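For reproducibility, we list the full input for the adenosine-5'-triphosphate complex.
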Amino acid sequence: MKELFYYVRKMHHFAGFKLYLNMSMVLLISLLDGFGIYLIVPLLSIIGVFPMDTSSIPLLSAMINIIESWSLDLNLPIILALYIVIVGGQAWLQRSQALLNSRILQSFIRTLRMETYRGLLQAKWEFYLRKRKSEFNHVMSNELGRVNLGTSLFLQAVSSFLFTLLQIAIALWLAPVLTIAVLISGGLLALFSRKFIKKSKRIGEQTTELSKYYFSGISEHFNGIKDIKSNRLEQSHIHWFNKLTEHMERNFIQFGRVNSLSQFIYRVSSVVLIAGFVYLALEMMHTPAQQLVVVVLIFSRLWPRFIGMQSNMEQLVSCLPAFHTMRQLQKEYEADQELSKTAFEDEPEDFRFVDGIECLDVDYRYDPHASQYALRNVNVHIPANRMTAIVGKSGSGKSTLIDMLMGLIQPESGQVLIDGVSLRDERKLLSLRSAIGYVPQDPFLFNESIRYNLKLVDPEASDEQLWSALKFAASDEFVRQLPQGLDTVIGDRGIRLSGGERQRIVLARAILKRPAILVLDEATSALDSENERLIQQALEELKGSVTIIVIAHRLSTIRNADHVIVMDRGRVIQQGGYTQLSQENKGAFKLLLNYQAGSQM
Ligand SMILES: Nc1ncnc2c1ncn2[C@@H]1O[C@H](COP(=O)(O)OP(=O)(O)OP(=O)(O)O)[C@@H](O)[C@H]1O
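The corresponding predicted structure, in tokenized form, follows.
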């Protein structure tokens, strides 16, 4: 409930005046609704359904007096016209209120969506290392939808409450004893119905768990579809899916059962109550028939409200777990914001460095409680405008070191400096990031055209610039041969391109950014030797004006490196010039070179 009120307060802060306007409209609608009902009674008496003495009904006699003071004879056409004006006006108001309601809700949800998306994007990289990506899909689609529904149900509940309150006030005025009897019965029923609310909440918690499981499952399966198909794992996955959807079906049916049972109980009790009231009123209290008609009319409007409110509450509490999930995620990403809120909006200062990037006594662990360090006592200097290669066995910490140099992760102890300024300085970090062109091991491309994918880093780039970047990455020829050239759509994550083609397009994109620092993490691993040679030549031309950091398993790729860092189990075990290290006979780099030369023979 705490989380619901958090979002309601947020909505109040966001919508303010509109929210009150909305509530006032609801009150006016319920008032008109009351008058509409009132008018049915004289209408019935005028057309001779039953004789009546209107003076015994307080509000009605006042209304009739007002109409008569306008020197109008109370006849059928006037009553009908009034009825049409009131009910028509109420319908118009209802429409305007529904529109206003929808506007408030939709813009609130959009704000929430934007806030969550922005908050997630501005969270630290470490936040993403901890969380599952499917959790974001789940929250951004399913849970946000449920928060939307819950907030709308809450607004409805408040409207219903106000509406019902007004109707109760009118009914109390007309027939206090009978209305109190209705209220007591309603209260008793609501007390009894608490268990339905509790049950709905439990079912809602299950819904959250199941949908989380569903989202993570399907996103993992479709990411791994190639493995599933090539290893013939379809059947076991279909079995998993079948079981899960069976649970989801049961969960929904269970909610339907609770909801319909409470509705059933309310409906049956309403008939029993009406019968009881009629008996009580006529036989024991000798209430005048016309008053009874009004009360029964009001009761028949009021009771469905109780039913609606009960159902509303059950649905609302079933959405509460979604509020909880959203709020938890929000707290986590807020605690893990990478930079202050305004920093992202600031234009980053121009990135310039003359000396280089330096790690001083850097330690880092992915899990602060684990004994194993991914980086341990790392001291390296990456000289500006030179090519530095990082080599070592798989798992030795190369990618972690690159993440550290890009400021994606921060050292547990020690520091990272750019020309002597710490990377913990927000402005430095931002300007560094804007100056980096990064090509990862598993390059990322959108299911859009090659042009779109390239222009992401420079929307103003001309075709000439695009082709020149493609030429740099040895990909101009194959792009020219594609049916739509630059406008060819490349499929999800670039699935319609080969691994090597994908790598080259991402390299072209990194180059188009005209980076001061180019980071290549196994970026040419999928290339044939001819294309790799072309790219090496191109990189050679960048030396002197761009700082290049390369991770490569294939040591032939780093022949042109000015500086080599050799890593093993998180430690830097050797560093120096390529030629120098390759001549140190017992050195780790020489061993790696010998090993690769041997395995290639
Ligand atoms: N997200 C993570 N969570 C926990 N441990 C991690 C994570 N990423 C890497 N590690 C661990 O940190 C160590 C260094 O990993 P890293 O990816 O930096 O190695 P690498 O040298 O780049 O390996 P490769 O050449 O296979 O890419 C490894 O022991 C690895 O298991």
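Residues 129, 366, 374, 392, 394-400 surround adenosine-5'-triphosphate (CB under 6 Å). The chain has a mean pLDDT of 82. Both points were considered when choosing residues for closer inspection.
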